[in-house]
Write the structure tokens for this entry.
Amino acid sequence: MPLFVDQAPFAAKAGNGGNGCVSFHREKFLLNGGPDGGDGGHGGSVVLLADGNMHTLLDFRVKAKYWAENGEDGRGGRCSGKNGADLVVKIPVGTVVRAENGQVVADMYTDGQKRVLLHGGRGGWGNAHFATPTRQAPNFAKPGVQTQAFRFTLELKTIADVGLVGFPNVGKSTILSVVTRAQPKIANYHFTTLTPNLGIVRRHGQDIVMADIPGLVEGAADGAGLGHDFLRHIERTRLLIHVIDMAGSEGRDPLEDYAAINQELDRYGDLKNRPQIVAANKMDLPDGQEYLAMFREQYPDVPVYPVSAAAHQGFDELLDAVEKALAALPPAAPFEQEEFLDDLPDLSGYTVRREGSIYVVEGAAMQRLIDSVNFEDTDSMKWFHMTLRRTGVIDALRKAGAGEGDTVQIEDMQFDFID
């Protein structure tokens, strides 16, 4: 099993809410003590935590299911059930969480960032809640909300200011080791770098995070070489350093290499629009100057900086250009996150009919919906109305002829229709 994993499946489930209790107070010499059933505890939520000490999603290949603790049922004597403990799941900084439909539900962009992925089910009310002057002995309670499991995909995207791209064996890892304190594996064969390597360039009192991305080859977008999977690690970079073996020491044409790599970047998202600086490496070898002149003639508008990683030459000018370019670029922004409706119940199969002046909504899931709502709580009522709207119940009522102020009945609850 590889030590570096940058994509993994992830299944999670928040805890169920505990059931409310039906109980009546019993005490010697006390007649009709009344209802004293306690409420069920709330289920635990699933909370994501970005951890800067994690650098791989390997843990999620070993364990892929994360279930939060259920809330306990209520008990007599007005004793509420214990709330389920939240389940905190640590993931590497830079992990993007996608739902099954592809929507981004979380982008854990900064160290220590927390996000509630799945909310625990609400605990049900005990029968003590339902006592009124006219209903002094309610023999019923609310069940806790039952949650469901969801599947997600985790994608680790390295967070760096600058990404080093280019063909294998052009010297990207060597350049990283020269300008930073990183110690990537370096060898004279293709695909020495199998995982992204990070290093920090400290220059003029500022830190620049630089990432060495495994080498690309022509056809990478179609799966050749290591494929284009590792390109996700430069999606966040603000600037690319395109490293070219300008001496052609591998027997390839540097100008053709430049065009081929840019073609692969064009085929992956918006990387074709990412600003680039060319590092013409291996200028200490024969033919370097000749190819450099040809490159500048063919690409006169491309900023190119001759360097030699082996001789540690030319990097001051390159890093000055990097620093200047980054100062003019906006900071990288996290992906736009969408609200994940983990507690949206399945209300399929309902029908709407008119009974006199009342519009009746019927369906197998309607009682569960009503049981899930605390009609005396503002947030619970907002959730109720949002659920009706997003599951299409409001549209179905409108098609059936319901208008503003008409009476709608779901199970034993009646309320005014609000468009």
